[in-house]
Structure formats: structure tokens, C-alpha cells
Amino acid sequence: MQTLRAYGIVAVFLAVTILGIPYQSAALRFGWKSARRFPNQYHRFMAKLFGIRIATIGTPVMGEGVLIVANHTSWLDIVIFSAVAQLSFVAKAEVATWPFFSTLAKLQRTVFVERTRRTATGEARDQIRERLLAGDTLVLFPEGTSSDGNCVLPFKSALMGAVEARVADGRGGTRAVKVQPVSTAYVGLYGMPMGRENRPLFAWYGDMELVPHLWEALKTGPIDVVVEFHPPLDVDAVGGRKALAGKAEAMIRRGQARALAGLHGPTPVENPAPATADAPALAPAVA
User: Fold this and answer.
1) What is the mean pLDDT of residues 94-113?
2) Which of these, 138, 155, 180, 238, is most buried using a 10 Å CB contact count?
3) How far is CA 85 from the centre of its chain?
4) For position 225, which CATH number holds?
């Protein structure tokens, strides 16, 4: 029965994707407004098809250039993030060479960055800055790799050089890029709490082969995921790139730990900054 379910999912996935690729290609080529909206609609459908039930906490910052930083557990993160908001990703350059999946990444306007050369850091920062200036929302995984889903790995602040970029503030000046930490946690399987022993069925890390892992995940069944959008940060308020990376990592680690422990509601904010006219106090709400 599980194998039959997986075959059905793959068949529908391929049919919808084959039809969607030429449409999104045309939307990008001709500058249609749907070029940003279609990936979100596509992944919302895929989340339902794969049996991913997403509970969101808080609100994503939209309508302006925002860099989302998040923990990374699985290839399913792409589906999950794309299903909850209109956004693109920052991915390592190797992804651009992967058969089939590279096409999907490019159609979602992914920014590919080279992480092995020091000189590439500035190039990546400039690419990301240009996209943020255009009002895009980009997702970056600062761990530099994926985990087993039971913890958050240390953030590599070198990957977060773009947080030091300046963008127009709309009043003739500039401001720091807004950075929104987001935590994800794979918490349920068939409606029951997912134990740490089952999480590797969906977490893709280490030397796991992608296609076999994808197949096993599709056979395993519906899952529940909690995505929490934490209050945004910026280097001006926090005090630099490394400090921002550390604060974002701490917020995401707490958010994931609470979700894995079955705690509901937004993660309490530690030492929240006072509200101002430009940065009102945030009160995340469960969606």
C-alpha cells in the first residue's frame, strides 16, 4: 500500500511539474507577475500531495527585501518554505549542476553561490544584495549543510555576509537588510508525535543518496511540520554580522526545541528591543 501511494505521488508530481515548467519559463522570460506567485502555488499543491501538514507561527516579513535565515533538515524544506511564502533560495553552486532539480531551482530564481573560494564571498553578497534591493525574499541556510532534524548546527557567519548590505529606506537614505530567523521542526508522523528515531526518514543529511531517500520518504506517510517566523533582526540593532548570526541561531534553536517538545505558541522573545515608529513591537500569532 505504501509503495502504491509513492508511485501515485510520483506520477502526479511528474505530470504537474512537466506542465508547470514551460509555464514558469514563459513567465520568467516575459516578466509576468505570476513568475513570483506560481512557485508558491505549485509548492502548496506539492505539500498536500506529499502529505506535509504545515503549522505556522508568526508572520513572514513580505513586500520588501528580506533575508530569511533558517535551520536546514531536508530537501522537503524547499517545498515547505515555498508553500508558506513567495520566496527564492540561496543555494550552493553544485545544485546548479544537478539533473532535473537544477531546472526547478532556476525556475524559482535561486541564487547560486560558490562557497569554497574566499573571493566568492563578495560576489555572493552582491548577488543577494541586488535581489534584496529588488524587493525579493531570499532563504539562506547558514548551517552550511543539513542536520538530522533533532538539533540546530552552529551557524557559519561567513555565509551571512549579505546581512551587512545596505538597502534604500524609502526616505533618501539607507538601512540595514532585514533578517528574519525561521525555525522548522518535523514533529509528527501519521498524526502522532515523531520520535527522534523516525526523523531521519525525512531528514536528508550526511552521505545519504537523494533519490533513494526521497522514495523512502514518500512511502512513509503524511508528516506534520512546525514553521515559526521569529521577529526580524538587523546588524545595526544587534551589533554586527557575527552577533546577528549568534542571535539568529539561538532564536532558531529555541524555536525548534519548543516545537519538538510539543510546546505550542510563539517562542518568548528574550530582551525584546523597544518599539519605535520604524520598528513597532511584533506580536507573532499562530496561523
Assistant:
1) 93
2) 155
3) 9
4) 3.40.1130
What crossing angle do the helices spanning 2-30 and 210-220 adopt, rounded to 10°? 120
Placement of cell 521542526 in the chain: 185
Whether 89 has a pLDDT exceeding 60, the answer reads: yes
Q: What angle do the packed helices 76-84 and 34-50 form, to 10 degrees?
A: 120
The verdict on residue 170 lying in a domain is: yes
pTM, two decimals, is 0.87
Rounded Cα distance between 134 and 114, Å, is 22
Q: Is residue 286 part of a domain?
A: no
Count how many Cα atoms sit within 13 Å of the Cα of residue 9 in the half-sphere of its side chain. Answer: 23
Residue 241 included in any domain: yes
Domain count, the chain: 1
Cell, residue 133: 534591493
Distance CA 155, CA 207 (A): 20
Task: Confirm if 73 and 146 have CB atoms less than 8 A apart.
Answer: yes
Contacts of 88 (CB under 8 A, 6+ apart): 108, 109, 110, 111, 131, 136, 137, 138, 139
What is the domain extent for residue 161? 2-260
- Cα gap 138→172, rounded to integer Å: 24
Residue 186 in 3-state DSSP? Answer: strand
Is 200 contained in some domain? yes
